Amino acid sequence: MKLLGKTVVITGGAGGIGAGLAKAFSANGASNIVIADLDGDRVASVAKELGVPGFQCDVTREADIKDLISSVEERYGAIDVFVSNAGVFRLGGEETSDDDWLLNWNIHVMAHVYAARVLAPVMAKRGSGYLVNTSSAAGLLMHVNSATYSVTKHGAVAFAEYLATAYGPSGVRVSVLCPQAVRTAMTAGRDQGVASVDGMLEPEQLAACVVDTMDREDFLILPHPEVLEYMQRKVGDYDRWLRGMARLKSAFTI
User: What is the pTM of this model?
Assistant: First the structure.
């Protein structure tokens, strides 16, 4: 899909990846860009800086996502691209509290579900539209220090696969964004962490990869191309890969 003249909504848009995508989409001719974020003050500030509308939105609340979509449609008409990008990261394993498990689930999976419930059937009916769901390389591989992140990011990939299968034949394009480390508030102080072994990307670099991949309409968006090789190793010999991940876990504490 070419972004020229398109109306785009980006959640988690008040910084990092979301703000980087807004800048890149604008540079590639998107006519209407709307950013949304849980932090109302921050999204207002970033929206003013970028010269775009900003909305406060809690993506764990279906009503908030419905309100965001209806407000954008009322102002601009049909939404061409919806980037479901909000995320959270917490360390922890099976001992993590139920509240943290639920928070990760609601942000990393249900937020995508809520957007798709509204938009996928409408896009399918008109035969066009693009859903970009942010997951992580951890959704294809794993994060050795966070079960909550790994499990729910896997869920995000699985749901994107479902959407592509269910709605792709009707003209709805679906991509899932799966980066390793990107320089954002989420990765602050983690330059030496496991996710950065292949380098810490700037949001601008990631955004350029997203634009290029959307232009090709490929499903996987892999700003770190090494991730594809790791996936192939994983499915090629699962037990060997798990042993390697165990060694990696022992080498990295974050």
Answer: 0.93
